Fold this protein.
Amino acid sequence: MEIEKDYDEDLGLDFGENSFGPTRRCHNRCLFCFVDQMAPSMRETLYIKDDDYRLSFWQGNFVSLTNVGEKELQRIIDQKFSPLYISVHTTNPQLRCRMLNNRHAGKIIEQLERLTQADIEMHTQVVLCPEINDGDELKRTIDDLSRLWPQVCSLLWCL
Ligand code: SF4
């Protein structure tokens, strides 16, 4: 299909709020979960634990990929959901399972490698927990992620 429009003209497509169905929820119980630490009585949407790669692509939400199996990973690749924003925290599989309280969290480096091979651009983040994923563990994470440059093109860390 060909569309002719001026550079600054709106495309005229409206995908609506729920155009891709319900938001995929987070399956983790992170040690540091910022949603769990939210003060009570705030607006309801602030308590939603989303973990949806479509929202990552669409609006820059960070995702853990722990709810992404082979089928979804292939969909990301086939449909070129790029860039993605990924909460890594650590590339040590056992430590990541412990930090996210999720036994499916340990395959992050394999997932990042697959996405790298598919030329998906990735922005990553680490929530630094003292004496858990800092020090040598952080060095390992940085080393592992730097091997995936330039597809992994940024690492943000927060305390
Ligand atoms: S991924 Fe972790 S930090 Fe984010 S909402 Fe889920 S439990 Fe909380």
